[in-house]
Design a protein that fits this description.
heterodimer, A: 517 residues, mainly alpha, Cytochrome Bc1 Complex, Chain C, 2 domains, two-stranded antiparallel ribbon, 2 strands, 1% strand, globular, B: 551 residues, 3-stranded antiparallel β-sheet, two-stranded antiparallel sheet
Chain lengths: 517, 551
């Protein structure tokens, strides 16, 4: 009898367990239960591999829209979107000349939603480039690169470079005229050190330009080898590098103390609203022995993380919101504008003008004056300068405030005016009156390499910056001036390259004036 | 903090809405809608992507996704204009696909893209009224006559009533009384498929054998002249009557004098071998009315070349609208694409590898295909305002003074420094017999024999210094101070002076040339000085002095 009863109990138990399976799967996945108390919200985050990059609590200052405008998250979101759409495109793309073009045509015309997905990929990539540049500007103007975040600024620069490289390598893949000639231009820019070695007459023995071009293309021409190279870089090497660096970048944000905020952030914030979860709703269960190994000038013990809210859900609303907003923008653009696809690549018919991707048009504009300086010298100067900023500028005032530091917003505004006008004036002179070569046809190449609109503009900006440092007795003021000027120069040169340059890189007010035939 | 919640909600709903829109669009792609609405004999069609893939030509043509009636795998598709079946043609559409003949974007599945009327598609469809131009992608045609010769040939073919038994381009031919096929074979493609060169003797044999019936009734011996005309006519039957006519017109306007096609032609203008493949995206339509098609661009270009192409030296082609349309069609047909070897037609192989001619080698055709462009269809000469003059070579006064040797030598050597190329010595120029036939034709057209000259080539002994003075007052207004040519031809040309005899020069000055600005200087005139025979000899002596001068 008893055996019968127990067997019944066993069956019932199994039945109960079976019914509890869904709940138990959830419970075992999120071990701390529903995130509805301070403790469970915390464990929700640090018990999760993907979420634990976040700190458990986030300062209310960080969640203000004007603090960052969410630009960093937009970069990450755009990358995520390109990653997903890119993988989908890989199902159909074939990285071999001519076949590549046909596979893009297939994606465009045949693959269900293929065109839409390719459009999204393209728009997300463009949004990513814009967002990365704006994100860097935000970081700079809020002086967020300062100690202890110097190294994260450097990682950010690495991310900028990889983002541009990703965009550039992706540009060749459709194998149309646009792609072919843009990459030809790009490869020629890589070859630009030749201008100097040629002028010195040592190209035959020492030719770093050709070496770099060969590294990029893998052959003398933009052909199958180059396509495979670009493809591998685009779908494998660069995304992996970017993902790794992004991980470090995010992790460093947390390790460097979250987002920068002004010292008086707490006073500036209004009192927390009713929807804010209280801090330390439960008594701490552990003692603060850990304080012994925490670095810091004052003990944090007793000073609760005031004015913070749990990351779950406040930060996640913001992050998910930005992800969806980015997705929305990509989708909306994709519905309206198709990604371009020109004729199949034809090495015999050069595009005229052949233009690089838009973010390189500023470089191409400078390259039109001097290949070496435009393609190599000035970008190197800019990158080194950017990298040096957090190590040379060691001031403390204005950290975490928009246009913080001496001079404030008026300085940034005036620098922008100066930067724009200087770029426009130098360009106007070069366009209207020509440059040294037009005046003295026999001028040595080295002279033109070192004295051209690009270097003149760089010099003007640098002098302006030095003048600012003296005037404000502040490196920060000089940095603001220089950064703003270069940003303005980038914008001016890019716009001229994109809209005002026609066949043979001649200036035209509009494409309608381009000579036909 | 609620702001972020609403941001998430709003953007998520937006994304959802856009995804639904995109998914819905996918189900309403043009070709899906068309196929869904289509019925065949066996009920509704399956909706699927249809294409004709030609591995040899490297094409995948999805045209049949919309033009389902033309899908080689479908029978009995019913519907409107879009569903009609392909006309019966020589080529198997399931092997050749669509774009090799019609051009357009085979991979595309939307009308505008597929027809190629979009940016960045360099090979839009050939308009329907010009569709025979598509044959030019693979085919050339050999030995085609000029207009005059073509009209005679066609006339002979009709006059001799070959159409009684033979069918040509859908006309003529009779059924056999037993109902098994035609009396004679269809000759519409005779030039391409070839025909028995012995056909006439075999016809004759049949005619002699026959007691009655069609051989007796419809055939009779033909003269040699007519036989030649018939073979000329057959050389134009390339299975594309309109294209043949277009080519005949091209060969009658002297286009080859300045343009090359498949290697042969002048070098003043661009090589036209692949002109029909011009990318419409690369030309300016600013001056072209109507649709921005290559066909419209060409027809406008024939009417006014310089307004479409800056610095163009080409004179306007002054012909009727119908002829412009034919010239446009022929230019569109010049699309000699690189093809895998097996697809190159044999007549094109003969043109490209064996340098056979695409035009007939009789004098009339050579003259109208090569010379007429500059010297006029009747050899009347031409002058566009501000350009150098092209001499009236059929002028009786000229032909009376110019020996056959003079004419042959001029065509062979050309006029260095002038537009006239050295047709005999230039790369891939005219062959010797072509030159002599053209010269023969020229003389026949002018109807004037050479007035034999008993004197030696150089008999003259005039006073060159005196001649210089006279030249300045009498000749330099038209021929230039240094004889470099203005409204009148250049006289300081060494090639001219080497060929021209003294008699030629003296007589030309004395007698002038009818219907040109050049009047005889012996004749008294109010408008200009008169020269005595001695003075004319002085002038010639002066002209001769340029022979040694490098010009």
């Amino acid at each position: 009898m008893s055996g019968k009863i127990s067997s019944q109990t066993g069956l019932l138990e199994m039945w109960d367990n079976l019914r509890a399976v869904p709940r138990r799967i959830v419970d075992s996945a999120f071990r701390s239960g529903k995130p509805n108390t301070d403790r469970t919200r915390s464990t929700f985050i640090f018990g999760n591999l993907f979420l634990h990059l976040h700190s458990v609590r986030v300062h209310r200052w960080s969640l203000r829209w004007t603090t960052t405008f969410g630009l960093g998250i937009v970069c990450g979101a755009a990358f995520l979107i390109t990653l997903v759409t890119g993988i989908l495109l890989m199902f159909y793309y074939k990285p071999y000349p001519d076949v590549a073009y046909e596979s893009i045509k297939d994606i465009h015309f045949i693959v269900p939603t293929g065109r839409f997905i390719r459009n999204i990929h393209r728009w997300a990539a463009n949004i990513m480039v814009v967002a990365v540049i704006l994100h860097m500007a935000r970081t700079f103007y809020t002086a967020a690169y300062r100690k202890p975040r110097e190294f994260n600024w450097l990682i950010g620069m690495g991310l900028l470079v990889i983002t541009l490289a990703l965009s550039f390598t992706g540009y060749l893949l459709p194998w149309d005229q646009l792609a072919y000639w843009a990459i030809t231009i790009g490869a020629n820019i890589a070859q630009s050190p030749r201008e100097v070695t040629d002028a010195l007459g040592i190209t035959e023995r020492f030719d770093p330009g050709e070496w770099m071009r060969l590294m990029l293309l893998g052959s003398d021409v933009v052909g199958p080898v180059a396509l495979i190279r670009f493809y591998l870089m685009h779908v494998m090497i660069l995304p992996l590098a970017l993902t790794a660096l992004m991980g470090v970048h995010f992790w460093r944000i947390r390790k460097d103390g979250g987002l920068t905020r002004p010292v008086n952030a707490d006073q500036k914030l209004s009192p927390p609203g009713g929807d804010t979860y209280p801090v330390f709703s439960e008594a701490p269960a552990r003692t603060y022995q850990i304080a012994a190994i925490v670095k810091g000038r004052t003990s944090q013990v007793g000073n609760g993380p005031e004015n913070t809210v749990p990351s779950m859900p406040h930060l996640f609303y913001a992050e998910l919101g930005l992800l969806m907003l980015t997705a929305f923008l990509c989708l909306a653009f994709s519905v309206v504008w198709d990604a371009p696809l020109k004729e199949i690549a034809n090495p015999a018919v050069p595009e005229n003008p052949a233009k690089a991707p838009w973010y390189y048009l500023g470089l191409q504009e400078m390259v039109s004056f001097s290949a070496f300086m435009g393609g190599f010298g000035i970008p190197a100067i800019v990158l080194i300068g950017l990298g040096l900023i957090p190590f040379v500028e060691r001031e403390e005032s204005g950290t975490g405030e928009w246009f913080g530091g001496p001079g404030g917003w008026p300085l940034a505004r005036n620098s922008a005016l100066f930067g724009l006008s200087a770029a426009i004036v130098v360009e106007a002179v070069a366009i209207r009156f020509g440059w040294i070569r037009e005046w003295f046809p026999d001028a040595p190449q080295l002279l033109i390499t070192f004295v051209n609109p690009g270097t003149v503009l760089t010099l003007v900006y640098a002098s302006y910056s030095v003048w600012l440092i003296r005037r404000f007795q502040s490196t920060r003021a000089g940095a603001v001036g220089l950064f703003t000027c270069f940003l303005c120069g980038f914008v001016v040169l890019t716009i001229i390259g994109a809209y005002f340059r026609g066949p043979n890189w001649v200036f035209y007010w509009s494409p309608a004036e381009w000579p036909g035939h | 903090m609620n702001k972020n919640k609403y941001l998430l909600l709003g953007s998520s709903l937006g994304v959802l809405a856009l995804l639904i829109v995109a998914a819905a669009q996918e189900g309403f792609r043009e070709w899906r809608v068309i196929q869904r609405a289509t019925q065949s004999d066996e009920g509704p069609l399956g909706v699927r992507l249809r294409q004709v893939v030609s591995p040899g030509l490297g094409t995948s043509d999805r045209c049949v996704s919309c033009h389902v009636g033309m899908d080689p795998n479908e029978q009995g598709v019913r519907g409107g204009r879009l569903m009609i079946q392909h006309a019966d043609v020589v080529h198997d559409t399931s092997e050749f696909g669509c774009t090799i003949c019609h051009s357009g974007q085979g991979l595309a599945t939307e009308k505008l893209d597929a027809h190629g009327e979009v940016r960045f598609w360099p090979e839009p469809m050939i308009p329907l009224q010009f569709s025979q131009a598509g044959c030019g992608t693979c085919h050339a045609s050999l030995g085609m006559p000029g207009l005059e010769a073509f009209r005679q040939a066609r006339g002979a073919f009709e006059r001799l009533d070959c159409l009684a038994c033979h069918r040509v381009d859908g006309r003529g031919g009779t059924m056999r009384p037993d109902g098994f096929g035609m009396e004679g074979p269809d000759l519409s493609r005779a030039a391409l498929s070839g025909y028995d060169p012995d056909w006439y003797s075999k016809h004759l044999l049949e005619w002699e054998k026959a007691e009655s019936g069609s051989w007796k009734a419809a055939f009779a011996p033909i003269g040699e002249q007519d036989l030649r005309l018939i073979s000329t006519y057959l050389s134009t039957r390339i299975g594309a009557a309109k294209l043949a006519e277009a080519k005949v017109h091209f060969l009658s306007n002297g286009c080859l004098g300045c343009h090359r096609v498949s290697g042969f032609g002048g070098d003043e203008g661009p090589d036209l071998t692949r002109a029909g493949e011009k990318d419409p995206g690369q030309v300016s339509f600013a001056q072209v009315q109507g649709k921005h098609t290559l066909a419209n661009w060409f027809s406008e270009h024939f009417r006014s070349p310089a307004s479409l192409v800056a610095d163009s030296l080409m004179p306007a082609v002054d012909v009727s609208d119908e002829e412009i349309e034919l010239l446009t069609m022929y230019t569109l047909s010049l699309r000699r694409r690189e093809l895998p070897g097996t697809y190159v037609s044999k007549e094109r192989m003969r043109v490209e590898k064996l340098e056979e001619r695409e035009f007939a080698s009789d004098g009339q055709t050579v003259f109208s295909a090569v010379c007429a462009g500059c010297h006029g269809k009747k050899g009347e000469g031409k002058q566009a305002p501000g350009r150098q003059v092209f001499p009236a070579i059929a002028n009786p006064d000229f032909l009376a003074l110019a020996s056959d040797e003079f004419i042959l030598e001029t065509i062979t050597q050309g006029r260095p420094g002038r537009k006239m190329p050295s047709w005999g010595t230039k790369e891939a120029g005219l062959k010797k017999y072509e030159i002599s036939r053209a010269a023969e034709y020229l003389r026949k057209m002018g109807g004037v024999e050479f007035r034999t000259d008993p004197k030696t080539r150089r008999w003259l002994s005039g006073n060159s210094a005196e001649g210089k003075r006279l030249f300045a007052s009498a000749c330099s207004t038209c021929h230039g101070a240094e004889g470099e040519g203005k409204e009148g031809p250049a006289l300081n040309n060494k090639a001219l002076l080497a060929i021209a005899t003294d008699t030629y020069l003296v007589e030309t000055i004395s007698g002038g040339r009818r219907r040109t600005l050049m009047e005889g200087f012996l004749t008294p005139s109010m408008a200009r000085p008169t020269l005595s025979p001695a003075e004319i000899e002085d002038v010639v002596a002066y002209i001769r002095s340029w022979e040694g001068v490098e010009k």
